[in-house]
Amino acid sequence: MMATILDMLLLLFLIVCAISVARTRDLLSAIIIFAAYSLIMAVVWQQLEAPDIAITEAAIGAGVTSLLLIATISKTRREE
Amino acid sequence: MEDLIVRMVSRIVVPFIQVYGFYVILHGHLTPGGSFSGGAILGSSMILFALAFNLERGAKKLSHETSTIVECAGAGWFAILGLVGIYMGQNFLTNKEAGFYMGAPGDLVSSGAIVLITLGLGLKVASTVVTLFYSLIEVEGDAHD
User: Fold this and answer.
1) What is the 3 state secondary structure string of chain B?
2) Model pTM?
3) Is A80 a domain residue?
4) A65-75 and B113-137 helices, crossing angle to 10°
5) How many domains does chain A have?
6) Which residues of chain B have pLDDT under 70?
7) Under an 8 A CB cutoff, do B33 and A63 touch?
8) Nearest CA-CA distance, residue B11 and chain A, Å
């Protein structure tokens, strides 16, 4: 029962993050929200009993992708 | 980026991230995770160092050429370990019959060639991430004209 409520909350937060990434005008804020999306996604993978994918998601999605996108922003403009 | 707090925190945190990355790589055949996850953790620790300090000090620790060489050496290491199987008269990437030390199941040094392959591939993934970062950050010229 508790696990179901936790899954519901995680999926709700996932949807909120996904919509707000698309609607944010500031690209740096969008990247930070995208990192939060990847972190929640890692917890969801862990709830689905796939710890291997969870570690990879936390390392790639929240770490490397955010750093590469921030490096891209430093070469281009910040506003959309 | 000239920030004292970011520099001090990253100076403390980076060795722990690297130890954790090596832990994930070395236990790749026992626990969840492996060469890809651990290599990504290792590579992102290098990127964190290069971002917190300036790029020149990061490039002094691990330059673009060195990471490119390590990347190619990781792929070559995988191919050489596969060719050992052919040299011993078996198929490509043969593990036990090619004479690798198997050990007891559950030990750190066990499962023959898998440990060696995971170690090489972890270094390859780490240097690939660092090479991607350097290739992206070192592009000269005006991109937004």
Assistant:
1) CCCHHHHHHHHHHHHHHHHHHHHHHHCCCCCCCCHHHHHHHHHHHHHHHHHHCCHHHHHHHCCHHHHHHHHHHHHHHHHHHHHHHHHCCCCCCCCCCCCCCCCCCCCCCCCCHHHHHHHHHHHHHHHHHHHHHHHHHCCCCCCCC
2) 0.84
3) no
4) 20
5) 1
6) 1-2, 140-145
7) no
8) 17
Q: Please tell me the predicted confidence (pLDDT) of residue B88.
A: 86
Residue indicated by tokens 């520099």: B7
Q: Is A72 on the interface with B (CB under 8 A)?
A: yes
One-letter identity of residue B79 = A
pLDDT of residue A18: 94
pLDDT at res. B140: 67
**C-alpha closest to that of A64 among B98, B21, B11:** B21
B52: Cβ contacts below 8 Å, ≥ 6 apart: B1, B3, B6, B7, B10, B11
Looking at the complex, report in whole angstroms how far the Cα of residue A41 sits from the nearest Cα belonging to chain B: 16
Global ipTM: 0.79
